[in-house]
Amino acid sequence: MSDAPVVITGIGPVTPVGVTRAELAAALDEGLEPAEIGEIDLEEYLETEKTYLDPNSELTLISAALALEDANLAITDEDAPSVGLSFGTHLGNVTTVESYCTKLREQGVKLASPLLFIHSYPNTSVSLTAMEFGIRGTSFNFNSGRWCGLQALASGADELCAGRMSVMLAAASDTYTEMTRLVALGRPFSGAAALVLEPADAASARGVRALAEVGGCGLASSAEGALSRALVEAAVERSDIDWLLLDAPEDTLGRTVEGTHVTGLVNVVGDSGAATALTGIVLAALVLGEGKLPAGLGLSALPRTVAVVSTDSSGAAAVVLRTVAQ
Q: What are the residue ranges spanned by the domains of the chain?
């Protein structure tokens, strides 16, 4: 077991409000305005050439590359067994699924592409990421509600606290198609986010400055229950929460933590499925770690403790972040 707190040492945003840490930091200064992610050159981020990638896998790989670079972490063969990966996607590789099913109907089973088939699984993205970066430790794939991005973070933190892994990469990605955009809570966008998680003492030994501490995580059937569990784990009171980032249906806003400044994530960063709440984690980590008061979000003072909550009809997850003790 590790007694050291878990901290975020690297972020990899590929989001509607910024691709790369620098872009996202600039957006926090200027105001968040979600827009479609433009064309990205994979060769800038990946060492191996790809013949085909589902858009969901592509975004996942780029976000992972950015997070590892941001954390100044190179995974060697010696390190690989102690580095794990925890990934969440609400919709899976729907673009490839729809394309494969179309070809199946039009051309029949014998002519349906086996290449498309192997890229259609909801765990394809996590598998490709592990292979691309030589990650041989724990590998989780969560394919549940939109809250599974936070579930991936929570499971990664658990692996570190239990001493089973020394580093965890937590990521989430989702892309919408014309068919699946009907389930979006707001304007749908493609997006991904990744985080490097480490015990605080290990980060300090590497000479890396942590952005934020993961104080507590909670899973439950409701936003209220998930937040309560995260607060207990973090050993903080509701009144200690300075800022709540909520990924939830519109009628949930404002009811979870009375008197706390609430930001509806879908309104400010767009809807990227499971990546929405993890984008909220990335935003909160930047605010806490860099002392950035975000423009246009109504915060009058820098927060010290932030809660991110994601929920839908299938369940909920919550994560409490706080400034790193100096």
A: 6-206, 215-322
For residue 280, which phi and psi values (nearest 5 degrees)? -60, -40
Query: b/e for 192-229, b at 16 or more Cβ within 10 A?
Result: bbbbbbbbbebbbeeebebbbbbbbbbbbeebbbbbbb
What pTM was computed for the model?
A: 0.93
Task: Using DSSP, state whether 42 is helix, strand or coil.
Answer: helix
Spatial neighbors of 121 by CB under 8 A, at least 6 apart, are 92, 93
The rounded distance, in Å, linking the Cα atoms of 175 and 102 is: 18
Tokens found for residue 254: 């404002």
Q: What is the architecture of the domain spanning 6-206?
A: 3-Layer(aba) Sandwich (3.40)
- Residue located via tokens 């179309």: 102
Closest alpha carbon to 174 in 67, 117, 54, 92 = 92
pLDDT digits (tens, 9 = 90+) for 29-51: 999 999 999 888 888 888 778 88
Could you tell me which residues are beta bridge partners of residue 312?
315
Nearest alpha carbon to residue 299 among 34, 31, 35: 31
Among the listed residues 17, 28, 92, the one whose alpha carbon sits nearest the alpha carbon of residue 274: 92
Instruction: Mention every residue, 6+ apart, whose C-beta is less than 8 A from residue 203.
Output: 7, 9, 209, 210
Cα dihedral value 100, 106, 111, 114, nearest 10: 0
CATH of 215-322 among 3.30.70.20, 3.30.160.60, 3.10.580.10, 3.40.47.10: 3.40.47.10
For 296-306, how does the pLDDT look when each residue is reduced to its tens digit (9 = 90+)? 998 989 999 99
